[in-house]
Amino acid sequence: MASITKSAEATQTMHQLLDDPSGYYDHIRRYSTAVILASVFGQRGVSFQSPKVQALYHAQDRFTAILEAGATPPVDAFPFLKLLPEFVSPWKKEAKEIQLEQKSLYYSLLNETKDRIRNNKKGFCFLEKILDDQEKTGFSDEQIAYLGGILMEAGSDTTSSTLLTFVLAITQYPDVLKRGQEEIDRVCGSDRSPSFDDLDHLEYLKACMNETLRWRPIAPGGIPHMLIQDDIYEGYFLPKGTILFANTWGIHMDEDEYEEPDRFNPDRFIGNPFGCKFNPEASDDHRRTTYAFGAGRRVCPGQRLAENSIMLNIAKMVWLFDISSPSSEPGDVSMSSAFSDGFLVAPKRFPVQFIPRSKKHVEVTRKEFLESSEFLARYE
């Protein structure tokens, strides 16, 4: 069911890009949130202006802003700061407000799900299954509300930011789009858009996804981890309990690992699952295709779901559109100026053209849009 939902919402997004290409930024952001709303809570996010979509992004933006390095005082290093009263420590007030905003959103979605169950109007979603098993699992309402909320927040920004980064990349690397279209045309033709069944046959577009995740990772500073035992790294003693950040940006931009790391080059992943300079057969067991989702035991559990969504949308966009910059001048792709600041980053709005490749592609998309709308009506 989740795969059908993702495919239907991807088709909706392509239709929105056809009708309103100038709103591309919001349409792509809507997609990832709409998939989570439907799959987890059994609700639709028809447009970016939908109240639930807006509420999620407002809470998410405030949360990621306060997580940014330097946004709050170093209370771990200076514990006495925790004792300061709230009127001289505004970060405490901000954190409480964010908590209340998140809790209000999560509980409203939980209660709406409960109401549908009571009224025998199930939406075929994850939270309904959890509620059905609540007596057996012993989960409290608070645990269920936050479980749904965390799934929603974790799956929204990551997918949309990666898709926007891909669009930004191909406006500056048009040969990548051309090769992707050649591959998608061989696999799908023009009579239908790509589906999940096609993804395993799209080697170059998979390389495009992996290169997007490497080139501009959404969490460039990495996710904090805590050592569960003493360790030594390059001569430095790190005691148990130390908080470490895996510097994703530093890893992905390492010239010892990657040839011309700042260049968007999907070819590095063709025949090499790690995209690195070294022989992939000689790589150690800890090497990963991308560190954008973290690593180790705490790697993002939704990585495969996110990659499937990213890959499907890339395939559908490349199949349907010629995507280009309206300017002949080189565009800004710098992480320091073309992307937002924060714990999680995304491209700032940039000029781009989405031009349908043919009338046939448009006709197929509009037909598939009607079919997907029938399926998604169950969530309205």
Automatic annotation (TrEMBL):
Keywords: Heme, Iron, Metal-binding, Monooxygenase, Oxidoreductase
UniProt KW Iron keyword: yes
InterPro entries: Cyt_P450 (IPR001128), Cyt_P450_CS (IPR017972), Cyt_P450_E_grp-I (IPR002401), Cyt_P450_sf (IPR036396), Cytochrome_P450_fung (IPR050364)
Pfam family of the protein (one): p450
PROSITE patterns associated with the record: CYTOCHROME_P450 (PS00086)
Recorded GO MF terms: heme binding; iron ion binding; monooxygenase activity; oxidoreductase activity, acting on paired donors, with incorporation or reduction of molecular oxygen
Binding-site residues, heme: 300
SUPFAM superfamilies for this protein: Cytochrome P450
Coiled coil: none
Necessary cofactors: heme
GO BP term, pick one: mycotoxin biosynthetic process
Family in the record: Belongs to the cytochrome P450 family.
UniProt name for this protein: Cytochrome P450
Organism: Penicillium angulare
